[in-house]
Amino acid sequence: MTKVYIYDTTLRDGAQTEGISYSLHDKINIAKKLDQFGIDFIEGGWPYSNPKDTELFDYFKKHPLRKSKLVPFGSTAHPANPAFKDKNLASLIKSHTEYVTIFGKSWDLHVKDVLKITMEENLKIILESVKFLKKNKKKVFYDAEHFFDGYKANPNYAINTLKAALEGGADLLVLCDTNGGTLLEEVQEIANEVKAQVAVDSFGIHCHNDLGLAVANSVACVPMGCVQIQGTINGYGERCGNADLVPIIGILKLKMNCTLTCDKQLKELTELSYFVSEVSNMVHRDNHPFVGRSAFAHKGGVHIDAMLKHPLAYEHLNPQVVGNRRRFLISELAGKSSVVVKAKELEFELDKKSARAKKIHKLIQSLEKDGYQFEAAEGSFKLLLEREFTKYKKFFDLLGFRVIVEKREDNRLISEATIKLKVKGAAQYTASEGDGPVNALDSALRKALRKFYPTLSQMHLTDFKVRVLDAKEGTAAKVRVLIESQDEKESWSTVGVSENIIEASYNALVDSIEYKLLKDRKAGKL
Q1: Residue-range definition of the domain harbouring residue 96
Q2: Does the pTM of the predicted model rise above 0.90?
Q3: At 99, which helix (H) or strand (E)?
Q4: CB neighbours (10 Å) of residue 159?
C-alpha cells in the first residue's frame, strides 16, 4: 500500500482566507488538534514576516507536539542578500525545527517581472538557499511556486529550477499549482515529465482550487509517485481556497487504500473539520463531502425507502467511519417511510400503513405548503408527534401579548413586550425590555414562566434566522423564523411561520420552550 504524508498549511495558507483572522491562541489550538488527529506536517506560518508566527514557534519549543512535525515556511533568499546573510532564512533556522519549507520561482514571468532579476540569478538563489539550510542541518521541502504555469510557459527553465533545488540538497520537491488553473490531465502529464527529466521517484503536490479541481488534482498524482499532499482543513485559503484535506484524507484511505499516519483517527475527521470551522469563525458547509451535516442526509421518499432496505443504495460509505451520521429529513418531498423512520428515532412507534401515519404525512405536507420547514426544526416536529400520539398537556396558555418599539429624542431605540399567560390555573402578567422586539418578547415570556418552571434558566437561544418566503409580496410577505436553543445537554431547533414576524417568532419561541419543558417533564425534573 502507498504511504502518503499529509502536510497541513491551515495556519498559513488557510489564514489568508477572506474573513479569517487567527489569534496566537487560535493557531496553537488548531495545531494541537491537528497533532492529536495525526497530521504528519503542520506548517506553523512564516516567522520572518509575522511576529505572531515567531511566537507560535517559540511556544512549541517549550511545548513540543506529540505526533506532528511543526514546519516553518519562508522564501528563498532575497536577491540583494547572500543566503548566509538573509534574515528570512535565518528565521527558519531559529525556529528550531527538524523540517523547513521554502518556495522559489519556477515561472520565468515571475523571475523577470516580479523579482526583476536574470534567469541565471534565480537558479543561483534557489541553489544557495537550499544549500545553506542543509548546511544548518535542516530537512528541506522545496515548494516550486507556480510550477505548472511555469512549465507550460517555459518547460526547460521550470525543470532547471527543480534541478537547482535538488542540487542544493532538497529532500522533497513539491510541485505547486499556485494559480489553481491547471486541468487534471495537464497535472498528470507534467508530473510524469518531471519524473523523467529530473530523475526523481517521488514528489509532493500543492494545489489551489480556482477551477474547483484542487482535490482531484492532488489525489490523481498519488499513483504517479506523489508522497506528500499539501492542503488545508475545509479547503480554506486565498481566493477559492486550497486543496481540502478533509475529503483528500477520506479518499486516500477509503477509496485508494493508502496508508496514512492518521489511519486510526479517521472517526475523528468530522470533529476535526467542525473544530477548525468553529475556531476560524466560519460557517461549516452542510454539503461538505464526508463530514457535512447533509453529507449523509436523505430527503426524497424514494431515496429513504431504498435506504431502509439497503444502506448502500444512496451512500458511498458508512458515515460512522468518518465520525458522521445518517439523517432522514422530514419534508413534503418525503414519503410516509421517512415519517415512520423519524418517528422511531424520536421513540414513537408508527405503522407505515396506519391511518395515523397518513394523517401525519398529510399534515406535514400541508404545513410545509404554508411555509413550515421541519428538516431544520426537529424540535417542532417532535412536538407535532407528541400532540398526535399522547394526551398532550400544555404547559401554559397565551391570553395575549403586546410589543412596542419606540424611538426617543435621544435616538435610543426601546423595545418593550408585555404578555399575559395562564399557567397552572393562575394568570400571569409581565413586561420586559429587550434588545429588539423578539428579545423583549422572549424575556417577558420567560419572566412569566420561570417561577413555575425554574429549569428554563438552564436554556438559552443560540441562533435566530428569518427567511422571507415570497419576496414579491414585499413587506407583507410571509416569513419563516427558525430558532436554535440549547441547555447543558443538547440543542434543538424550532420553527414559526406568519405574515407577522413577531407572531412567527413567538410561535418558534413557544415551541422552543415547550420542547425544553417536555424534556424536563420526562426526565422527572418538573
Answers
A1: 5-279
A2: no
A3: strand 99-105
A4: 20
